[in-house]
User: Which sequence fits this backbone?
């Protein structure tokens, strides 16, 4: 969802800047961090580790608490995403160890491939933000906020036909930015 | 094979989004088929991170404000004997003035600030989440 508050927009603000602003007391910077990364964190918890229902919410809470407590110490020594991933994996493992009542339990994601796919999906989200308006807001509303094209049109005050054409055009741009390879099943010579 | 014009990229993108059946040309054209597969891959990646429940997002955002309010209050309590006296006399009022919900857990935890200098806010952090 486009994150605009008054004249402020955080879409072009880097993660490190957001962290610095959140540490300085800017509540909106924290909100942006949550908007930017909650889908990823929640997907790692629920899909890569298979933690569901209320337990997933509990682990998500734990990640947020660790995030708040760790922001000061993080201080940009590593890419924010790497740090957040480590925090999330650690929270998942700790939860599963607590559940099993075994502190020495070796816990790994259900699927390493799944984790890699979530990382890639996060790259795609970043690429969408990099497209700039109007592609960014259109793709965000349609694919991330899961609105229909008619709903996107209504939200943006644009004719539905314009939105449909824009989605196609923006996907074409996104594909060229990402340099996506087709899945193996669609490779050349598979006819 | 019958020669027909390739589909435009935007048309292939629209096809990937709609999930509609491929036109006959795509089945026979390796170039269009490959391009469509790439668009489908892009769409799959775009939808791979569904939005979590809104209340979870809201709670995560509210946590920051609550936690900062709590940390500021604890800092002031450490420095201000009059505020500590106020807390003993009427903890609910002190918490409300600090922008915090006066839950029993919070009142109990804050009463410990006089006994411990430790990480009270961190210990009650999770309780702040949904409060």
Assistant:
């Amino acid at each position: 969802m486009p994150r605009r508050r008054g004249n402020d927009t955080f879409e072009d603000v880097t993660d490190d800047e957001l962290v610095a602003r959140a540490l300085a007391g800017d509540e909106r910077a924290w909100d942006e961090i949550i908007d930017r990364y909650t889908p990823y964190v929640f997907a790692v918890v629920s899909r890569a580790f298979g933690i569901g229902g209320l337990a997933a919410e509990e682990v998500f809470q734990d990640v947020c608490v660790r995030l708040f407590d760790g922001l000061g110490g993080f201080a940009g020594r590593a890419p924010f995403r790497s740090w957040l991933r480590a925090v999330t994996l650690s929270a998942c493992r700790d939860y599963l160890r607590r559940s099993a009542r075994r502190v020495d339990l070796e816990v790994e994601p259900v699927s390493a491939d799944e984790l890699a796919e979530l990382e890639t999906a996060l790259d795609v989200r970043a690429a969408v933000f990099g497209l700039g308006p109007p592609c960014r807001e259109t793709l965000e509303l349609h694919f991330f906020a899961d609105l229909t094209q008619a709903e996107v049109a209504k939200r943006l005050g644009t004719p539905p036909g314009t939105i449909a054409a824009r989605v196609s055009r923006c996907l074409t741009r996104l594909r060229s930015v990402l340099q996506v390879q087709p899945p193996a099943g669609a490779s050349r010579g598979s006819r | 094979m019958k020669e027909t014009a390739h589909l435009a990229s935007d048309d292939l993108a629209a096809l990937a989004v709609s999930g509609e059946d491929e036109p006959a040309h795509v089945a026979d054209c390796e170039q269009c088929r490959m391009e469509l597969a790439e668009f489908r891959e892009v769409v799959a990646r775009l939808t791979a991170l569904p939005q979590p429940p809104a209340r979870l997002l809201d709670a995560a955002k509210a946590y920051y404000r609550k936690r900062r309010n709590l940390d500021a209050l604890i800092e002031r309590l450490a420095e201000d004997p009059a505020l500590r006296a106020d807390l003993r006399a009427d903890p609910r009022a002190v918490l409300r003035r600090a922008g915090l919900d006066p839950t029993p857990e919070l009142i109990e935890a804050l009463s410990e600030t006089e006994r411990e200098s430790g990480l009270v806010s961190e210990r009650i952090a999770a309780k702040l989440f949904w409060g």
